[in-house]
Amino acid sequence: MVLQKRLDYGFDGYQVPPIPQATRSDRRRCSFKRKVADNQMCAFDLLATVAGKLLLEEESSPSSSDRLTEKELSPTLQVSIKKEQQDEDKILRVEPCGGLESMITSDCSVNVAKSKFQVGSFENKVELASSGYQESFDCTVVDKFKKKMNIELQNTGNISNSAKVDICSLDDLTLRDRKHPALVSVESSMTLPLGTDHFSCGSFPAIREDVKLVIRDDDENSSGCTHPSSTTTKSYRAPSCVGNRRLRNGFASKYWKVTPKLKREEKHFNADSEVKPVYHNRKFCYKYQRSQRDYPIKKRKLYYDHSSVPNPDRGISCKGITSFPGKKFSCDASASSATMCGGLFPSLPFLLMGFCIFSRGLVLVLSLGSSPNLIILTPHAASGKPVCLPGQYGTFQSEDSHVKLRIKSFKVPELFIEIPESATVGSLKRTVMEAVTKILGGGLRVGVLLQGKKLRDDNKTLLQTGISDDNKLDALGFSLEPSGSLAPPLLHHEDSPSPLTCDSPQPLTRCWSYRYSPTPIAVLDPPSLNLESFVESDHDSAPSPPDMSIDKNLTDSRALVVVPAMNVGASAVVPARKSKRSEAAQRRIRRPFSVSEVEALVQAVEKLGTGRWRDVKLRAFDNAKHRTYVDLKDKWKTLVHTARISPQQRRGEPVPQELLDRVLNAHAHWAKQQAKPETCRFL
DNA sequence: TTTAGGG
DNA sequence: CCCTAAA
């Protein structure tokens, strides 16, 4: 999908010519897809694939193959990337580094000529030199690291336009964060001083959850190792170790296909800026030739002056924050390894596995724990935000603009089973089976949900709906619905159709949200439930223990519930509670406050008062995702009530009288405070 | 989104 | 806990 994104930028997916021997036309036709189990697909694979393709294409290009001399190719830079799956006959040879001259220019793009970058040991010099065009960037290693490597991208014409990527050693890293035994931290500081203002990077909201997943993995895998060589967990392999098996090279992109869109832009440029498209090395590899004289200036403008040129390719933005004319674009390195991504990877070190600079952005392949991630710093326009593709992502874009999806689970219609206590387990099973059969009997339909919203228009293309948008992948969900829905025995009409909230193929994805208005009956939108969410809901005990789970709570278990529409007559299957609400509006399970929670609540209210429930939430229940500020307010209400009634009338887990006294005191106190706002509000 | 209250 | 009017 990420690559699909690239489509917009002129990167036409990834296609790998099957075999070098194939004729060109054959190659074009039967370029094979590297079939990889979805969960094995990783960003690096994608890039490697691309690299493979690029290389192969280059090899077959007389003009460029000239440069592929043994001399120039450092042996260590020759890499065989083999699918870990053993795709025997399809071993890609990727030789991305040594002296290959590549140019990936499209309209206004970074032009990278040389790339020597061996991530495997981090001993090579990184050098991305200009291919001779003034407008291109130089990327050179400033420090020969060991300790620190500095890749500097700079515009040869103007030093101030530079991008820096600092890579510090593990040692440096562990000093900062011992928790993550990553090997190398990439402190990316992209600095494009363009003027006065300063933009720093924030976060990538769109992919935050994905990232969380990664972080979790990190923690799990974290072994405390602080030295690369000792860090040999599955997820963290020292670069040098990796080298043998699967050397992960940085590579410069080569020739990118011209996409239709770009072709159009091409024309545009032709007219506008004396840019003459020149197909270089096959028609889908191209670059522009510009007249030298006005190039440098114009070029920079194209790069950075977003407002002056109506072209999507302007400037590199970091996570959506872009450089604007006269402003400085910067991702400060001081923050952490995550700098580049700001809040995305807070202080999470990552290993730079490769990078790729191409016309429309900078791609970094980073290892964030167990799987490589693809970070794309895109030019401003198109999506604005960098894309992160977790390695284990189940969806990706393949050639031919196909969207590949792996559906791990379906939401299934809710079932409601009513069965006497005296019934046997066997009869329970049968009853459930009956209910299920009832539904299946009528046939099933599949619903597609995007960001919680049901996609009802069957005629829209994935592209139109945005499903092919990488940002939305994790918001994609499917549901099973009784197909009899068109003329289903409607039992209740009071409900209105409701959006399903969740569920992507990923188990840990957030599920529905709490408060929904009554929603329509389940006929068309049968209540669905995520089977995978039958996770033991966490017993939130203490209010504060860090809750690392991704809202596990939200996936409260919802036992079997009914599918009203389907229960025609089946005695065992009856409509649930008038099926008042459907899927999303399912009433949350009851979770009585524990004494410790009450304690925390009381303490917070004593401190903050009774009108600041949000603050109370943040202060004392920030980690209890299932406790909303409304819940806290409600609880306080009941606490006050409880405190006022006699102990005999109280129900549930008894709250210590001491706490109830404090409740009354605090309540009285804050009531008084409200009466006289002038007074200082401290206890 | 929060707050404040009734259900 | 839910639902909402108001802010």
Automatic annotation (TrEMBL):
SUPFAM superfamilies: Homeodomain-like (SSF46689), Ubiquitin-like (SSF54236)
Domain HTH myb-type intervals: 585-644
Organism expressing this protein natively: Rhododendron simsii
Name the record gives this protein: Uncharacterized protein
CDD domains, alphabetized: SANT_TRF, Ubl_ubiquitin_like
Residue ranges of every copy of the Myb-like domain listed in the record: 585-640
PANTHER family membership: TELOMERE REPEAT-BINDING PROTEIN 2-RELATED, TELOMERIC REPEAT BINDING PROTEIN
Residue spans of biased composition, Polar residues class: 222-235
Positions of the UniProt region annotated as Disordered: 218-239
Keywords for this protein: DNA-binding, Nucleus
PROSITE patterns: HTH_MYB, MYB_LIKE, UBIQUITIN_2
InterPro entries: Homeodomain-like_sf, Myb_dom, SANT/Myb, TPR1-6-like_ubiquitin, TRP_plant, Ubiquitin-like_dom, Ubiquitin-like_domsf
Keyword set includes Chloroplast: no
Transmembrane spans: none
Domain Ubiquitin-like: 403-473
A Gene Ontology molecular function term of the record: telomeric DNA binding
